[in-house]
Amino acid sequence: MQEPETELPEGQSRAIAQAVREALARRRMSRQTLADLARISISTLEKALAGRRPFTLATTIRLEEALGQRLRNGTEPVSAAPETRHAPSELGSYSRESAAWLEGRYLTLRPSFGMADAVFAYRTEIAWDAASARLAFREAERSDAPFAQTGSVAVPNQSGMIYLVTNWQGQCRLAVLCRPTIHGEMFGLLTTLHAGRGTQLTPAAAPLALIPEASAGPELSYGRVTSGMPAYADYRRQLGRVFEEGYGVLFG
């Protein structure tokens, strides 16, 4: 019979909740991203942070590993599992510090695959994953939430490009982005699969733009953005820059 999880005292749970909130603020990390990295449900994390249930020892240890800091005794690094600060060679061997400028939330734009001339907008969050020693990305605010992607970020020195790589049981999706502009924008191409008739999947490529949310403007909007909506003209302009300014090329 499985032993019940050890619940921490109320006072200690409150202190851990405060430490987690501060860590999220410093890292500009969402609660969902932390829950994914710690391999716990977002419901469990939300309830513990709100004080509706105590933290358990197992949950706290997972959060410590994901954040790379001790939560039970302040904010000193966790000595039991020292953090690896360089990504694997297949992702470019970049250090955490050298790639920190990529971390943040981005308004992400591509053409809608289901409606001509419409723009599909969602959020991409990039943050350091201490458990796997790499930058990881996660998509959110997608109107087709079941198709939201998560994956790794490759930053090789040779090409100077940035790659967002999804590999789920051998099924791959790849975004190739040029280095950020002076305003932090990244432009490039997305290669993916498009759902056709019935269960048919078709290879597809499209322009892609990632705009830092802080500079995305007052008309920030997610979902399918169509002509006449406040954000439409700016979103089309940003997508147009991919080919107009040479950030991507489609042959044929």
Short description:
The chain is built from five helices and nine strands; from the N terminus they run ααααβββββββββα. It is an alpha+beta fold and 252 residues long.
Question: How is this structure best described in words?
Answer:
One of its GO terms (molecular function) is DNA binding. The structure is a single chain. This protein has 252 residues and is α+β, with helices and mostly antiparallel strands. Helices cover 23% and strands 28% of the residues. The N and C termini lie far apart (63 Å). 31% of the residues are buried.
User: Could you state the order of secondary-structure elements as H and E?
Assistant: HHHHEEEEEEEEEH
Instruction: List the quaternary state of the chains.
Output: single chain
Number of distinct helices: 5
Secondary structure category = alpha+beta
CATH topology of the largest domain: Lipocalin
CATH architecture field of the largest domain = Beta Barrel
| Contiguous uncertain segments of 5+ residues | 75-81
Strand order of the largest sheet: 1-2-3-4-5-6-7-8
Shape: globular
- Residues in helix, %: 10-25%
The tally of domains stands at 2
Amino- and carboxy-terminal Cα gap? 63 Å
Q: Number of DSSP strands?
A: 9
Radius of gyration: 20 Å
Tell me about the largest β-sheet: 8 strands, antiparallel, barrel
Average residue-wise pLDDT: 87
Q: What is the C-level CATH assignment of the largest domain?
A: Mainly Beta
Strand content: 25-35%
The CATH homologous superfamily of the largest domain is called Quinohemoprotein amine dehydrogenase alpha subunit, domain 2
GO molecular function, one term: DNA binding
InterPro entries: Cro/C1-type_HTH, Lambda_DNA-bd_dom_sf
